[in-house]
């Protein structure tokens, strides 16, 4: 501020916002991220503007998750405050998405789609969540980003469960399992086995359900995860 470096001030405000978000001080975080946004717009800095919109989305997303954790409920059954907070997150992610499309930044589009999928899932809008996660999946494949691809399969599996499409969920969870083995991520592999066990229970294929729950058990024991 002393030397009149507006772009520097904007970046510093954004960093403060992200730090306050991690500390759980969400309302103060929004103020700092908004400052980042205002200065970026004033300076015609489109990249900074996109980043600020994404960061504000993240703050509202984190606040919404934080509020809903205290009330352990199924997606979609949310108190008004939580719903409004997640809707705000969604709006900022949408604004970020249209800007990064304009900028032609595919990686940033992928991140926006993933977060839009997650917020819509929490809001109980499962069909919208699926559409966003499919976009996320396509971009992850474009970049050969296996970890993001794995997350997208997981999220697609979860959303289809709530639409009662258990057979489709099972296919997505199998892809999650396959990728977690490729990535040598045992915790995620265990989680995928657990999801498959539950899905096959819903499909009333109990032999398969047992098979996957046993796999889950073995990995949990290997990891010493009580």
UniProtKB/TrEMBL annotation:
Gene3D superfamilies hit by this protein: Tetratricopeptide repeat domain
UniProt feature coiled coil, ranges: none
UniProt-recorded Gene Ontology molecular function terms: G-protein alpha-subunit binding; GDP-dissociation inhibitor activity
Domain of life: Eukaryota
TPR repeats: 150-183
Gene Ontology CC terms, in alphabetical order: cell cortex; plasma membrane
Keyword entries, A-Z: Cell membrane, Cytoplasm, Membrane, Phosphoprotein, Repeat, TPR repeat
Main localisation: membrane
Subcellular localization: Cell membrane; Cytoplasm
GO BP term, example: establishment of mitotic spindle orientation
Phosphoprotein among keywords: yes
Family of this protein: Belongs to the GPSM family.
Protein name: GPSM1 protein
Record organism: Chloroceryle aenea (American pygmy kingfisher)
